[in-house]
Amino acid sequence: MAYYTQSDVETSTKSTVRFSDIDLNFEMNPLTKDVNILKNEDAVKRSVRNIVLTNFGEKKFQPFFGGNVLAQLFENFSPFTSVQLKKAIERSLFENEPRIDRLVVDVIAENDKNSVDVTVRFTLKNSQEPVLVTFTLERIR
Questions:
Q1: How many structural domains comprise the chain?
Q2: Is 49 within 8 Å of 119 (Cβ atoms)?
Q3: 5 pLDDT above the threshold of 60
Q4: Cβ(106)–Cβ(90) under 8 Å?
Q5: Helices 41-53 and 79-96, packing angle to 10 deg
């Protein structure tokens, strides 16, 4: 007759679901001599940044993939533009990043620097810890 005791059952606070992605800097891992791998939070952070910075039409066969935020940087920046930018980022992340939950986007205009500071806060589907991604969008021309 089979039975088990409490010591036979493994208890873990960490989730077994893992996310991974390659590092787009293509830096070599000195131990494995292979491309570095981003895991869990770092992989999702990189994905969020890539989705937001991708313009419509840049990804073949998916013409509406991305945030298309660079097109809005050349507008005269006003509170309405800030709301539009925030909604565009939220829409693109809800549509294209299934691994995130509880999304909050903050957009702060830096008129003197001709840039916009974007802060994206979210949790992963398999975690309750908040993740923060911050980056700056700049007008180049």
A1: 1
A2: no
A3: no
A4: no
A5: 130
Nearest to 105 by CA among 128, 79, 87, 131: 87
Q: Are 19 and 39 contacting, i.e. CB atoms less than 8 angstroms apart?
A: yes
Q: Identify whether 92 is part of a domain.
A: yes
d(CA 11, CA 24): 35
- Is the Cβ–Cβ distance between 51 and 66 less than 8 Å? yes
What residues make up the domain containing 26?
Answer: 15-138
Q: What are phi and psi of 21, to 5 degrees?
A: -155, 160
At 29-39, the pLDDT tens digits run 788 888 878 78
Neighbours of 14 (CB within 10 A): 9
- The reply to whether the predicted model has a pTM over 0.85 is no
Whether residue 9 is contained in a domain is answered as no
Between CA 47 and CA 66 the distance in angstroms is: 11
